[in-house]
Amino acid sequence: MTGRAPVSAAPAVRVEHLAVVRGRTRAVDDVSFELDAGTLVGLLGPSGCGKTTLMRSLVGTQVVSSGTVTLLGEPAGSPRLRDRVGYVTQVPSVYGDLTVRENLSYFATILGASSEAVERVLADVDLCDHAASMVGRLSGGERARVSLATALLGSPSLLVLDEPTVGLDPLLRRSLWSLFHRLAAAGTTLLVSSHVMDEAERCERLLLMRHGRILADTSPAGLLSSTASEDFESAFVALIEGDVLGKRGVPAAGEERP
Q1: Number of other CB atoms surrounding residue 61 within 10 Å
Q2: Phi/psi class of residue 52: alpha, beta or left (left: φ > 0; alpha: ψ in -120 to 50)?
């Protein structure tokens, strides 16, 4: 189990009026939110809605057009955040010609993590039986777990995970979400993206995104209640329909006519 991350009263993440423009497209459109330390937050929305661009902006690998991003009291991309923020991309960022343990040992050396940390994260992501396997011969889901393990090595205070459960079987997906909850309980802040709406119920808080904007910032129960829906897919559809109607001058659900 990853060691306890320090919990602060200040927001772990503060995003203010963030915009990213690509050509004629506003990939992220005036997005603002804050994340408290030790919370498990789901960033949900369809493929292409801007989730990855937003996450890249958070970790400092995306050129932004305007706005500010502050992580753990530092500007996004600050060198002081390198061992405090873990980022797992959609495409596994590990070496296919090394074994799982060799990959983790290499990244542990860079981070100054111990050999005990390597064994701990192997267990965390259920890869002990594959420790001696070449990463290039693993399945896509297994390689994704190796990437997640490297991000856990330094016991980061903030984890930004881009579609970490894609391609995983239901039992392994449940196991990883249990790990995410344990990390949050120990003080780590997690932002986990997904285009699978059913994963909303596994989060403490939801940021629902479409066309570069945040449609809703709520809890799973609050989402179902506000949309009068019985499932999360229907709730998201209701949000989209309300957003479209609102833009046309027709009151969205819960709004009053002027």
Answers
A1: 12
A2: alpha
Identify the band that residue 249 occupies on the pLDDT scale cut at 50, 70 and 90.
very low
| 3-state DSSP helix/strand/coil % of the chain, to nearest 5 | 40, 25, 35
Residues 6+ apart with CB under 8 A from 195: 44, 45, 46, 47, 51, 163
Q: What does each C-alpha distance from 36 to 12, 84, 102, 157 come to in angstroms?
A: 5, 15, 35, 11
Ramachandran region, residue 206 (left: φ > 0; alpha: ψ -120 to 50; beta: rest): beta
Query: Of the candidates 208, 205, 214, which has an alpha carbon nearest to the alpha carbon of residue 17?
Result: 214
Amino acid at site 207: L
List all residues 6 or more positions away from 83 whose beta carbon is below 8 Å from its beta carbon: 111, 112, 154, 156
Note whether 219 and 81 are within 8 A (CB). no
pLDDT in tens, 17-28: 999 999 889 999
The predicted model scores a pTM of: 0.87
What is residue 250's predicted lDDT score, i.e. its pLDDT? Answer: 37
The pLDDT of residue 17 is 98
CB 55 within 8 A of CB 71: no
Q: In angstroms, rounded to a whole number, what is the distance separating the alpha carbons of residues 115 and 113?
A: 7
Could you tell me which of 183, 104, 109, 114 has the C-alpha nearest to residue 143?
Answer: 104
